[in-house]
Design a protein that fits this description.
The chain is of the alpha+beta class and 252 residues long. The protein has helices at 2-18, 106-109, 112-118, 138-154, 215-225, 227-251; strands at 28-32, 36-39, 46-54, 59-65, 68-79, 82-95, 98-102, 128-129, 158-162, 166-168, 172-179, 186-196, 199-212. The chain folds into 2 domains: 2-212, Immunoglobulin-like (Sandwich), CATH 2.60.40.1930; 214-252. It contains 6 helices and 13 strands.
Length: 252
């Protein structure tokens, strides 16, 4: 109920901001229904509502990015009837999560050059191989890059959804961004772009934090800070569980 009240209050505030007046109104205002996603033991994914308002006509694009990192892609080949990893390639500056939604297809809103400038769309992401690829290796690097994007899409971590931004009247808009259960933790940004006549005339960035909470977070922190102790404890627990199971089966 409190979340609904905040949303309604926010929409009224947006309406007030874009009302004509003696001062020049902002071209774009937007916000998230939640700025914090708590990942607990039973986390099964969640939706976050992004809403806002624009002044005048235009298209709206929403890009939500997760923290960047290093990703390794492996290629399997059949050797003697068995599939084995025969080649791999590491990429750096890879967004762990990337979602882009808009009210129309991106190609109808922006040119490729403008999209490249703002990294809007899978084909514009600037992650590169960890080791510089020579001219002969560029086709192979592109193949691995496309495979990485497909893997992210299959895991629901990369999403392109044209038409998901919905206008409510002439000024208000909204869209829902789905975050899957395998969502990486870290600091995210929601970038909203107002496009008019093929040019970005206004943009706004809003932060979002994804963090583990509860017992699962404590275990994660312990494993990260004390990996040797965590490994030893895990082995001891496994041995203890096996010993208990042996006693139970011996008595039965």
């Amino acid at each position: 109920m409190m979340g609904l009240r905040r949303l309604v209050f926010g929409l009224f505030a947006l309406l007030a901001i874009v009302q004509p007046g003696p001062a020049r109104a902002q071209a774009l205002v937007a916000d998230l229904s939640d700025h914090f996603i708590a990942i607990t033991t039973g986390f099964i994914g969640t939706d976050v509502l992004l809403f806002g308002a624009i002044e005048g006509d235009g298209d709206v694009i929403v890009v939500l990015r997760g923290p960047t990192g290093k990703e390794l892609v492996r290629r399997k080949s059949r050797v003697a009837g068995i599939f084995v990893n025969d080649k791999d390639m590491a990429f750096v500056n890879v967004p762990t999560f990337y979602s882009v939604s808009s009210n129309r297809p991106l190609a109808e809103i922006l040119s490729t050059n403008v999209r490249m400038r703002h990294e809007i769309g899978f084909d514009t992401l600037r992650f590169t191989p960890e080791r510089a690829a020579g001219a002969a290796d560029l086709p192979l690097a592109d193949t691995f890059r496309q495979a990485l994007i497909r893997n992210k899409q299959n895991a629901e971590l990369y999403v392109e959804d044209p038409g998901k931004v919905v206008f409510l009247g002439a000024r208000l808009f909204r869209t829902r961004v789905y975050f899957p259960s395998n969502l990486p933790t870290g600091s995210y940004t929601a970038d909203v772009y107002l496009v008019r006549d093929g040019a970005v005339i206004s943009a706004q960035s809003t932060p979002l934090v994804v963090s583990k909470v509860g017992f699962g977070a404590e275990v994660y922190d312990f494993a990260y800070q004390w990996p040797m102790a965590y490994g030893a404890l895990a082995v001891l627990l496994a041995l203890f569980a096996g010993w208990i199971a042996a006693l139970v089966f011996r008595r039965t």
